[in-house]
Structure formats: C-alpha cells, structure tokens
Amino acid sequence: AQSVAQPEDQVNVAEGNPLTVKCTYSVSGNPYLFWYVQYPNRGLQFLLKYITGDNLVKGSYGFEAEFNKSQTSFHLKKPSALVSDSALYFCAVRDDRGSTLGRLYFGRGTQLTVWP
Amino acid sequence: GAVVSQHPSRVICKSGTSVKIECRSLDFQATTMFWYRQFPKQSLMLMATSNEGSKATYEQGVEKDKFLINHASLTLSTLTVTSAHPEDSSFYICSAADGGGAGETQYFGPGTRLLVL
Q: Do A13 and A19 contact (CB within 8 A), yes or no?
C-alpha cells in the first residue's frame, strides 16, 4: 500500500531563511511523488513532482525537492522563505498499479508560517 | 499551466435540497477526475474517482446514491449532493488528471464551500 508521512504539523521560519518541509513515503511500486500547496479556502496548487531522473526536482515559486531513495524521503525546500509562502503544504504519492491506479495518497499536511 | 475550475465557489442551501457542483478542466482533457472532501485543518479525503463515460468508483463509506457523480465529457464532471443535510457541510474539491502516463499530474479546482442549514 502507498502512504506518505509528514512528521511536522507546523513549521515556522523567519523570512529570508531557508525552509524545509519533510515528507517520507512508503510504496510498493514506483515512487511517483508530488508536492501541493493550499492557501486558505482554496484548492491545491501543484508545485512539483518526482517521476524519474534527477533526484533534485525544481518547481514553482522557487521551491525544490530532493528525492532520496535510501531514506525514502522527498523533502520540500526553498533557499529563502517569503512571508507569502505561508500556507498548508501537502506531500502525496500516486498509486501506479491495480484498481487504484492514478489515486493520490496525501500526507496530513504541514502548516508553514513565515514571519517577517 | 493546467487550469481546473469549479462552480459554484460557495453555496448555502436548506436541508433536504440538492446541490450540484461542476468541475471543468479548461485547457486539457481529463479522462479521470477525482472528488475530495476536506474538513477544517485536515487532509483531503477521496470520495470517488470519475472516468469519462463510465460509472464512478466510490471509496468505502461514501454513499453513491447521496453523492451522484456524472462525467459526461472529457472536460466536465459534476457532483450532486442529494437531499443535503447539515452534516454534508464541507469543502469539496475536485481534481482532473492530465493523462500524462507515468508523469500524470492531478490539477485541483479552487473548491466549493457547502453550507447546509
């Protein structure tokens, strides 16, 4: 079965500092991994994905994520946080087989707060 | 980027009435769409998977007669909450898959806030 874990409910960081939002995964097939961001009362916005290839994936708004197979992790990072990055971040893994092909399994979300 | 719209963004209705929510992929065709429900400060709960031209697949515990899903075209799926009750009040979000093979990505609508009085 596929699953992701986001061990931190909340991450606080000062503007200008680097940020990391953690995600670990468990899959029975290929790890197709995603990061989404959700602003209040809005749907999810796609940030980036790892399918294959380079372990460092670059995405929208200056975010990047590093796929680490040995640690089964896919942490989201940004070198310099902005106050406008404050939002709820979801890591997800996509099922790549069987009757649940295409389904996304979400972590519980991490609330990122960037203070001025 | 791929855009998914949802309408209405917000709806208030009386108990016992039905509410229809539309989900459209605006600039791509989506053979598969998904409907989620989100409770405050929680993750998304998948309700059903909708494939164009076929019956939706509902998750365990989701009443298919209460949450009717129709995926009439490659760009439109609708969710109808029938005989809505206050406990159906929630944030409903749809997504559309771009069918990109291994790299397939789900793009999400902005959500619909349903309040049943």
A: yes
Beta-sheet pairing, B112-116 with B10-13 = parallel
- Coil, helix or strand at residue B87: helix
DSSP 8-state secondary structure symbol assigned to residue A98 = G
> How does pLDDT run across B73-114, given as a tens digit for each residue?
999 999 999 999 999 999 999 999 988 788 889 999 999 999
**E strand segments, A1-116:** 3-5, 10-14, 19-21, 24-26, 32-38, 44-50, 56-58, 64-68, 73-78, 87-94, 104-106, 110-115
B26 vs B98: CA distance, rounded Å: 11
Res. A101 pLDDT band, cuts 50 70 90: confident
- Note the pLDDT tens digit of each residue in B19-74: 999 999 999 999 899 999 998 888 899 999 998 888 899 999 999 999 999 998 99
Beta carbons of A43 and B44 less than 8 Å apart: no
Contact B106 A104 (CB under 8 A): yes
Q: How far apart are CA B114 and CA B43, in angstroms?
A: 17
Instruction: For residues B108 and B3, give the distance between their C-alpha atoms in angstroms, rounded to a whole number.
Output: 8
pLDDT digit string (tens) for A44-67? 999 999 999 999 999 999 999 999
In eight-state DSSP terms, residue B88 is: G
Nearest neighbour of A42 by CB, restricted to B44, B107, B111 = B111
Residue B90 neighbours by CB under 8 Å, 6+ apart? B37, B38, B39, B114
A30, A43, A51 ranked by CB distance to B111: nearest: A43
